[in-house]
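Friendly challenge for the regulars: who can give me the structure tokens for this chain first? No prize, just bragging rights.
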Amino acid sequence: MSLRTTLGLSRESSLEEGTPDEVRAKKSAALAAVLKPARLEVARRNSKWTEFEEVDLVARGPRNQWFVSATTDEVFEPHRGAVFQSGSTSVIADQADLAFYLDPNGELVFLERIPGTWTEHLEKQAARERAKAAPEPRRVLAE
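First reply, four minutes later:
Bragging rights claimed.
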């Protein structure tokens, strides 16, 4: 199926007019306009995926690369793999337990859950800091 058919464009469309770079940019923008809402619908229908509002996630952790849910205290990091096949709504990672949200540009951002809660991570960090700050044990010789 051609891009023109997918987008429902007529033969008179200006999609093919301009320099090769302009044509490529127009096609890419037109395809994205169709894919974004379709992919969001697919993501919302997947029972293994959880949708978050962007305002529910707070950047934390090393270099603010983790996201903590304000409601559940769960910790997430960006999903590094592909979720959809390129240029389509076909899901590659349909069995993965992922979370997602819409960024301000309307892009889907997928996240993977990290074991433990943010509170547990803070408790472990505090325990490590207490262990570092503790005085070295002294040996006392018995007489």
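The two ends are 91 Å apart (CA to CA). DSSP finds three helices and six strands in the chain. Your move, everyone else.
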